[in-house]
Design brief:
The protein has about 140 residues and is an alpha+beta fold. The protein has two helices and nine strands, in the order ααβββββββββ.
Length: about 140
């Protein structure tokens, strides 16, 4: 009906041969380097994002510190209840915030603002009393 069995066998054989050749040629083009190595080799490492960090409390801080990557960030004091810092990070900013308030300070709000260059401001409000130790993550 569709021609001779020999002709059909030859066509099917040629199709398998072409598919095999195509498969072998694609295997040779497959990269064995991990993605991180490729980006280093081409110089496309993750770009650092500059950000301003502002921490503002409703009551005066007794002490405040920020740890980024295990190192303390230098905070500029604007007032007794507001500090700021300039940071460099990749697209994820993770830091630990530690705040102590004087005795008899009622439960109070702390507003943390991250303002990445050229992007929308990110903000988080945390309520605490006495001592606050909080690990924060912002996706820039």
């Amino acid at each position: 009906m569709f021609g001779s069995p020999i002709r059909t066998t030859i066509i099917i054989g040629l199709l398998f041969l072409c598919g095999g050749l195509l498969g072998f040629s694609l295997i040779g083009k497959r990269s064995t380097k991990p993605v991180a190595e490729e980006s280093e080799a081409t110089g496309n490492t993750a770009e650092l994002v500059s950000s301003s960090l502002t921490i503002r409390g409703a009551h005066s801080f007794q002490s405040i510190s920020c740890l980024l990557g295990g190192k303390e960030i230098e905070l500029d004091t604007l007032s007794s209840n507001e500090v700021e810092a300039e940071l460099q990070s990749n697209s994820t900013l993770e830091f630990t915030l530690k705040i102590d308030w004087p005795e008899n300070t009622p439960e109070t709000a702390v507003i943390i603002q991250v303002m990445p260059d050229g992007k929308a401001t990110l903000e988080r409000t945390i309520w605490a009393e006495g001592t606050l130790t909080e690990e924060l993550t912002f996706f820039l």
